[in-house]
Amino acid sequence: AGHFCPANSTRAEAWPCPPGSFNPSEGGSSAEACQPCPKGSYCVSGSSDPSACPAGTLGGGTGLQTAACSGACPANQYCGEGSTLPSPCPAGTFGGSGGGLSNESQCAWCGAGTFNPVPGAASCEPCSPGSFANETRRAFCTPCAAGSYQPSANATRCEACIEGHFCAEGASVPLPCAAGSYDGGGGLSGQTECASCPIGSF
């Protein structure tokens, strides 16, 4: 196995299957008995069986000859042992710079105040004003609830709407109650919650 024997051969070791091929059977009489190494594996000279490409590398083609296989797993993706295709780092994570990741646990998590909705991303984005992310590994940011607001990006929480104003869901700026109305408690979610000024006052 791993070799072939032309007519009149006396030493099998003199005729190993060439790199990138293997022969699992005995009795081959020519190089045609050697099969191309399949995707996800590599075959050194004289191989009787393919060897799986190591984790962190990609085996994207046939006939690979060394443990380097097709090269390092592409950036922002990971490749387990014997991979023929890379898997993207999932939403809520990112791959960072460089490649060669071998499993999903090596994908970095988005930090609090950031998000990433797209698998295979190189980085995470800050939450926009009016939203927040109070946990890591978020695929999306949560809009501020009605009655609260957040003027800054990259936030991990929202603030209660200030007195004399109202804040709709997702507000980044409090809006003042209209002329002739007021609010004495804060946390209003709309103009309809602003109370009308009593008769004789403004």
Notes on the structure:
With 202 residues, the chain is mainly β. 0% of the residues lie in helices and 18% in strands. It has strands at 21-22, 35-36, 41-42, 51-52, 77-78, 87-88, 93-94, 108-109, 114-115, 125-126, 131-132, 142-143, 148-149, 159-160, 165-166, 175-176, 181-182, 195-196. The strands form nine sheets. The protein has a two-stranded antiparallel ribbon with strand order 1-2. The protein has a two-stranded antiparallel ribbon with strand order 3-4. Strand 5 and strand 6 (87-88) form a beta hairpin. The model has no long low-confidence stretch (mean pLDDT 87).
Observed structural traits:
202 residues, two-stranded antiparallel sheet, 0% helix, mainly beta, 18% strand
Helix residue percentage: under 10%
Secondary-structure element order, N to C: EEEEEEEEEEEEEEEEEE
Q: How many strands?
A: 18
Distance between the termini: 98 Å
Largest sheet: 2 strands, antiparallel
Determine the strand fraction and express it as a percent band: 15-25%
Shape call: rod-shaped
Question: Low-confidence parts, pLDDT < 50 over ≥5 residues?
Answer: none
Q: Determine the oligomeric state from the structure.
A: single chain
